[in-house]
Amino acid sequence: MSENTNQERGNRKQRVGIVTSDKMDKTIVVTVNRKARHAKFKKVINISKKYYAHDEKNEAKIGDQVVIAETRPTSKKKCWRLMSIQSTAE
Predict the structure, then answer these.
(1) In terms of DSSP bridges, do strands 65-70 and 27-37 run parallel, antiparallel, or are they unpaired?
(2) What DSSP string runs through 14-72?
(3) Would residue 63 be called left, alpha or beta, if left means φ above 0 and alpha means ψ between -120 and 50 degrees?
(4) Cα 32–Cα 59–Cα 13 angle in degrees, nearest 5
(5) Number of domains in the chain
(6) How far is CA 42 from CA 32, 35, 36, in A?
(7) Which of 35, 39, 69, 65 is closest to 54 using CA atoms?
């Protein structure tokens, strides 16, 4: 999808992550890693979160780096969709 499509739909959240599972039909699991400072100990820690995203054409594979965008809920756990694949796994 192009950048115009995202502007027409409003300002949606976007995340960049790695595909960790593609075993479901039209669904991928994307792990997004971020760094945050611990509130008490002030140490930088890695935080990872998994998102279920809609992949209409089943084009993303395990290990691909992808961009996902927030959308209306498609199922109980799925409220993100695949925007683009930035790089593919070797």
Answers:
(1) unpaired
(2) EEEEEEEE--STTEEEEEEEEEEE-TTT--EEEEEEEEEEE-TT----TT-EEEEEE-S
(3) left
(4) 35
(5) 1
(6) 22, 12, 9
(7) 69
Q: Which of 70, 71, 68 is nearest to 82 (CA)?
A: 68
Q: What would the pLDDT profile of 10-30 be if each residue is shown by its tens digit?
A: 789 999 999 999 999 999 999
Is the pLDDT at 63 greater than 60? The verdict is: yes
* CA pair distance 9, 13, nearest whole angstrom: 11
pLDDT at 31: 98
The rounded Cα 73 to chain-centroid distance in angstroms is 14
Contact (CB, 8 A) for 22 and 61: yes
Q: In terms of residue numbers, what domain contains 83? A: 3-87
CATH of the domain at 29: 2.40.50.140
